[in-house]
Amino acid sequence: MKDLTCIVCPRGCRLHVDDDMNVTGNFCPRGAQYAISELTNPVRTITTSIRVTNRPYTLVSVKTTNPIPKQKIFDVMKEIDKIAVEAPVRIGQIVKTNILGLDSDIVITKNID
Questions:
Q1: Of 17, 25, 39, 49, whose CB count within 10 A is highest?
Q2: pLDDT in tens, 64-92
Q3: Which class in CATH covers the domain with range 44-108?
Q4: Cβ neighbours, 10 Å, residue 83
Q5: Kind of pairing, strands 47-52 and 84-85?
Q6: Taking CA 41 as the corner, what is the angle to CA 33 and CA 74, rounded to the nearest 5 degrees?
Q7: What is the pTM of this model?
Q8: Where in the chain is CATH 3.10.530.10?
C-alpha cells in the first residue's frame, strides 16, 4: 500500500493506493487520476530561470510547456542551463523547442524590456 497527498487542488486529500491500484481517500475523481499517474508515470512541470545576456545580473523566468517525466528533470535542467537570451523578451516566447525530444518547449514567463 502507498500513501500520497493529492496536489491537484488545495484540499490536499490523503490518498491510499493498494497493490491493485484501487485509490481511496480522494474526494474527487481527479485525486484518483493523480495517484495512479504518480505511481505509474510521474511527471513534473519545470520552472526555473535563464540568463539575460545584455542586462547585467538579470535573469528571466521560464517553464516547460508540458510536464516531463520525473526521471528526466536533471537532464532537462542541464539543457536549460545552456540557454541565454537577449532582452527584450515577452511572455510566451519560445526559447527552446522540443527539449530532449520530450514534446515540451521552454517558454518565457516574464516580460523584460
A1: 17
A2: 999 999 999 999 999 999 999 999 999 99
A3: alpha beta
A4: 14
A5: parallel
A6: 130
A7: 0.83
A8: 44-108
